[in-house]
Amino acid sequence: MPVKIESMADLDAAAQVLAGDKTAQVLGGGTILMPRVNAGDVALRRLLRISDPVLRKMTVGGPEITIGAGVSMADILAQQGLAFLHPAAVCVGGPAIRNMATLGGNLFAKAPYGDLAVLLLALGTEVSLAGGRTGPGAARRDPIEVLFRQSTDARAPLVRAVHLARPKAGQVQFHKMARTNPRGPAVVTLAVSLEVSAGRIAKARIALGGIETRPCLAVGVARTLEGAALSEAAITRACAEVLRELTPRSDALASGWYRGEMAQLHLRRILQQMM
Amino acid sequence: MMVKKPLEFRLNGTEVAVFADEAENLLSVLRAKVGDLTPKYGCGQGGCGACMVTIDGRTVLSCITLAETVAGADVGTLAGLSGERLDPLQEAFMDGFAAQCGYCTPGMIVAARALLQHNPTPDRDQIIEAISDNICRCTGYEPIIEAIQSVVAQERAGGS
Ligand SMILES: Cc1cc2nc3c(=O)[nH]c(=O)nc-3n(C[C@H](O)[C@H](O)[C@H](O)COP(=O)(O)OP(=O)(O)OC[C@H]3O[C@@H](n4cnc5c(N)ncnc54)[C@H](O)[C@@H]3O)c2cc1C
Ligand code: FES
Ligand code: FES
User: Fold this and answer.
1) Of the candidates A196, A203, A215, A205, which has an alpha carbon nearest to the alpha carbon of residue A267?
2) Are A215 and A207 spatial neighbours (Cβ–Cβ below 8 Å)?
3) Residues B115 and B133 in one domain
């Protein structure tokens, strides 16, 4: 039976459909879902096209930034006020992919994809879900990490928007390591956010993509940095912690061993740049 | 029963009305229902760029675009670039042997024209970036980059 496409104008009504039918999924830009439709994937039964304008809304001017889940990578790149997200948005495929690919879809992309999600994770982003517990229209917020603990697409909640504080200049660094350039799937993606106070690292968040199926936080690595000044010794301690904490996966792009080496190498380079 | 959905859009400036199948992609509609064979079917997965078209001036991969999403939009294909004369990019691709088997050529030219519309004087890196959705298995890319550079030079000099 071919997949059924339903157009819905209201986000919360769509959330109710999703909650009641595990086979239903949201269609974002379709860069992940449409190849599956074309291949006749029988697991896809029902796709919801949501035209609610709230999904395309961006609030960029103030200290808190809100970006609707339906905003594309190209839209993000067109916003100077979101320049700190550009290093990740620009590495999602080529220009045509970026015209289609949405932020919402990136949050649910599995490795080797999900580059923007890794940067959002390092930035301590929150997500608001449609039809949250507080009732339709009044969405609650969760840390973005909750999405990456989800194991199946069918149970994925409907993301309305992401919310994040504007980082200070020099607070965050992002790097994607791919084998084909200018564009290619990631061997490993890293994003590091360091909040420094009186010469010491007050708060560190280190997010990695490609290591697990979904973006992950290296909490132990971050802990080795917190309270310390960013020195060569601190960087060496942090890099040594990477493989104690994480077990990188192997796939056709890279072995787990290689991923681990690259994660340490690029973490070292990023931290040295931030010194 | 297979659902058919009425779909109207503009293709290269001309109104088009078709019935799309449920979940049909835009490439299939363009080739099988409208008869515009300039976008090619390469991978059907968004990975090769052979099917590239524009929607309201922005490049997309038509094989992974749900056809019904273009209702009311302006779709552009390679067929819309040439009138009485070929587009200068088509001329340059022929003159510079930038098309060998030619399968990637429609997508390459759509990508290049979209670039030049937004940035008439791109440098080499911007050209490479602009065609990074497009795979060519024949030319090694260099003749394609040079053909686009020659059109940039020509258009900058005011020629056509
Ligand atoms: C050739 C090619 C190259 C690519 N390169 C990259 C790359 O370099 N880096 C990268 O990160 N990705 C890459 N991708 C993958 C993909 O394009 C991006 O991850 C993109 O952001 C996915 O978004 P989408 O809107 O197209 O997702 P869709 O295909 O529409 O959806 C993907 C998943 O997300 C779910 N979803 C979408 N929106 C929501 C929402 N609001 N709430 C809940 N669930 C939602 C869908 O139900 C589905 O399960 C590439 C894809 C292709 C085809
Ligand atoms: S056929 Fe569309 S990208 Fe290959
Ligand atoms: S000319 Fe043959 S694929 Fe490019």
Assistant:
1) A205
2) yes
3) yes
For B133, the domain range is: 88-156
The total number of residues written for chain B in this structure? 160
Give yes or no: residues A161 and A207 share one domain.
Answer: no
Boundary-marking domain end, from B36, B53, B78:
B78
Residues 6+ apart with CB under 8 A from A152: none
Q: What is the pLDDT of residues B47-89, one digit of tens each?
A: 999 999 999 999 999 999 999 999 999 999 999 999 899 999 9
Residue A3, chain B, CB below 8 Å: the answer is yes
Q: Domain total for chain B? A: 2
- Tell me how close the Cα of A52 comes to any Cα of chain B, in angstroms: 14
Q: Which of A129, A144, A165 is the last residue of a domain?
A: A165
Range of the domain at A148: 54-165
**Distance from the B156 Cα atom to the nearest Cα atom in chain A, whole angstroms:** 24
Q: Are A259 and A201 within one domain? A: yes
pTM: 0.96
* Cα-to-centroid distance, A136 and ligand 1 (Å): 26
Quick check: CB of B101 below 6 Å from ligand 3? yes
What atom in ligand 1 is closest to the CA of residue A186? 8
Question: Which residues 70-89 of A have a C-beta within 8 angstroms of B?
Answer: 74
Q: Is the CB of B43 under 6 A from ligand 2?
A: yes
Torsion of CA A250, A253, A259, A265, to 10 degrees: 180
Q: What is the 3-state secondary structure (H, E, C) of A160-194?
A: EEEEEECCCCCCEEEEEEECCCCCCCEEEEEEEEE
Looking up residue A211, the CATH number of its domain turns out to be 3.30.390.50
Q: Are residues B95 and B47 in the same domain?
A: no
Q: What is the pLDDT of residues B116-159, one digit of tens each?
A: 999 999 999 999 999 999 999 999 999 999 999 999 999 888 86
